[in-house]
Amino acid sequence: MTSRHGLEIRAATPIDAPGLATLLAAAGQATDVPAMAERLAAMRQEAGAVLIAAQWGPPSGLVVLHWYPTLDDPRPTAQITTLLVDAEERRRGIGRLLLKAAAQAARTAGCGRLELLAALEETSLRAFCHATGFAETGTRLIRSLRKRGS
């Protein structure tokens, strides 16, 4: 999917690992490049999508989504677990384009709804979600499956 000004939204591949590692590190989520490449390859085999926004260099944006069946809807739900745009590239419509591509991928997979996980302290992301049609449905709690100290 190509958009205005040469910006391309496409599926991420292991070749994108260095740029994605840099993008995530800038957001405080450091990951080494070989591990990133392995995860991208593994995720291509799962029910979901990893999409990037790229122009003439490393990715400037990323959306990761997974779909899964639920008991309350006959169609799967798509869940966005990561939506990130490089700080210097924000306010250019990249987030909206990534969201549009994610919604299309979810529709193609037969999903009936799209949900996005956003921490309460992520006020700019929450405002973006409201502006793009998301509604608050409550909060989520998570916990590690590893013992403390492991």
UniProtKB/TrEMBL annotation:
Pfam families: Acetyltransf_1. Coiled coil: none annotated. InterPro entries: Acyl_CoA_acyltransferase, Bact_Acetyltransf, GNAT_dom. PROSITE patterns: GNAT. Keywords: Acyltransferase, Transferase. Residues 7-150 form the N-acetyltransferase domain. PANTHER family: ACETYLTRANSFERASE (PTHR43877:SF1), AMINOALKYLPHOSPHONATE N-ACETYLTRANSFERASE-RELATED-RELATED (PTHR43877). This is GNAT family N-acetyltransferase. It comes from Plastoroseomonas hellenica.
